[in-house]
Amino acid sequence: MADAPAGTVAGAGGIAATTAGGFIAGLGGASLSLYYPGSWNEGLSSGQGLIAVALVIFARWQPWRCLGAALLFGGAGALGPALQGVGVSGYYHLFNAVPYALTLAILVWTCSPKRSLKGAPLELGVSR
Q1: Is the per-residue pLDDT at 35 higher than 70?
Q2: Which of 25, 59, 76, 113 can bridge 99 by disulfide, Cβ–Cβ 3.0-4.6 Å?
Q3: Which burial class, exposed, middle or buried, applies to 120 when counting CB atoms under 10 A from its CB (0-12, 13-18, 19+)?
């Protein structure tokens, strides 16, 4: 639907893709609430949505780059618990902040005005 004018109704493929994406996002939310604390709590995602949006922007909407970026951010998120598991517990809050600091650093480093819109879908209405 990239060449369709704005305001047109999505076809069956667009509806199916949106439905599948919503289903996968629901599975992610369910696994997040069941895996980490075992129940739903206020502030459960703790800013991980920001990291997900930054991941897509950083990967320039390319699936394989998204996979690499997800592994990078996931590794940064696993750093704190891994170090705590081997006995390094003095800087627990600092290690928990690493994914967010990495997100900000990568976005500042990669999002110049010329490069930030490169590869963006036309449906966003911001491509040049």
Answers
A1: yes
A2: 76
A3: middle
